[in-house]
Every structure is written in structure tokens, then in C-alpha cells.
Amino acid sequence: AAIAARDGLWFHVDGAFGALAMLSDRLRPQLRGLSRADSLAFDFHKWAQVPYDAGCILVREPGRQAAAFAQSLAYLSRADRGLAANAPWFCDLGPDLSRGFRALKVWMTLGTYGTDRLGRMVESCCAAARHLADRVDAEPMLERLAPVALNIVCFRVRTGDTDLDRLNGELVKDLHESGIAAPSTTMVGGMLAIRAAIVNHRTTPRDTDRMIDALLGFADTRLADVRPTDTDPPGKNQ
Predict the structure, then answer these.
(1) 0.90 exceeded by the pTM?
(2) Of 113, 141, 170, which residue constitutes the final position of a domain?
(3) 106 with 123, same domain?
(4) Do 185 and 198 fall into the same domain?
(5) Per-residue pLDDT tens digits for 36-60
(6) pLDDT tens digits for 174-199?
(7) Which among 40, 41, 114, 208 has the fewest CB atoms less than 10 Å away?
(8) How many domains are contained in the chain?
């Protein structure tokens, strides 16, 4: 934020799901500087538990947003009254000329649960992520690949001389097909990582333990298939 202000740059923050950590008194200090953004984008359909899709953008100077997207076409002419009157026209604020009533489900969610309850839910997700990170750190077969700031834990199975990227990719598929958990993958430091992003209000530390137990079981099964036995001839499974 300070660099952007010094050099006259537009400071945009892609808040995705993380911006909603502002709803938590405990987590808010981690988002210092967010209030200095010229624009902020985030999704209600992630941590706010709103059905997909529901994105939001906040712009400090709304006139600049309209200047970027407004179109002065003949069939979009304004009038002083009637249906073509009144401002803003929402088509002046983005590329869509037509759009659904996405704001309704956001309004209903906020009205039903309130920001305090959503903030506690965000904290609960982060607590589950910290529990998962502790479990990963305690397992000799697992390796955490990045610090845990909020709700994302990146880790992998590490063992033997196996192609670890391929092994971890297959293990994620095993988890998906088991129905136990649905982590994704990403790359961290050139290594394929299992990425657990906890945003569901129903996820508990017990759920993360079930995922790790299943993961270790799948890993044992796969590694048993490639371990040489005493009766294997030299070179087999290598």
C-alpha cells in the first residue's frame, strides 16, 4: 500500500475468500493495509457460505469504475425519466449488460446469520486448519510445505525414492473417489502439494483427522505395491 501510494499506482486487492477474515476480531490484524486499497474484490460464495456465484467489488472512487466500463451506445442512452432514468446503471459498473439478482442471496445470508456469527465461523475454519497443520507436523510420513496463515494447509506425503509428485497426485484422486475429503493440488517450491482449503462451516478438526487417516492408509497401500520383497529378483519394482 505504501509503495503504491508513493509511486501513484492503483492498489487493487484480490481478497477472494481471505478478505472476509475482516469479520473476525482475532484475525483482522492480519489484514492490515486492506483499508488502503483503491479497489477490493472478494467472493461471498466462499467463506460467507452464499450459494455460487456471488462476487463483490468495492471501489474507493466509484467514478473511476464507471469511467472504465460505461458505454455510450445509441441503444443505451439515458433519459431524465422513465425506465432509462436514474443512476447508476449497473451495466456501467462492469462488462455485463444483463445480470441476475445475486444480491438477494447475499442480503438473506447476512440478515439471517449476521457478521458476528460469520466471523466466528471463519475463526472455526482457521482453528480446523491449525489442527490439521499440527497433525501433519506430527506424522513422520507427512511434510508441511508452507506456513498456515488462515485456513489453507499445503503438505505432501514424503517417503522413499518414489516420484512424490505423482504419488501425491494419485493420493488426492484416491481421497476424491473415497468421498472422505476433496482437497486440491498446487505447486509449492517446485513440488506438488496437497492443498486443503477449509471454508465450509461444517468442517471440524475431526474431519481433518479422518482425511489424514485415510490419506496415510492410501499411501501405505500404494507404497506396498512398489516395495521389493525378500523373494523379488534384483531390479523388480525399480
Answers:
(1) no
(2) 113
(3) no
(4) yes
(5) 999 999 999 999 999 999 999 999 9
(6) 999 999 999 999 999 999 999 999 99
(7) 114
(8) 2
Per-residue pLDDT, averaged over 203-207, amounts to: 98
Nearest Cα neighbor of 97 from 71, 67, 59 is 71
In a domain, 233, yes or no: no
- CA dihedral (11, 17, 20, 21) in degrees, to 10, reads -100
Domain hosting 186: range is 117-226
- Domain end call among 113, 131, 153: 113
At 45-101, the pLDDT tens digits run 999 999 999 999 999 998 888 888 888 788 888 888 998 888 778 888 888 888 889
Residue 144: all three cell numbers together: 508441511
Q: Exposed, middle or buried, 116 (CB in 10 Å: 0-12/13-18/19+)?
A: exposed
- Judged against a pLDDT cut of 50, whether residue 238 lies above it is answered with no
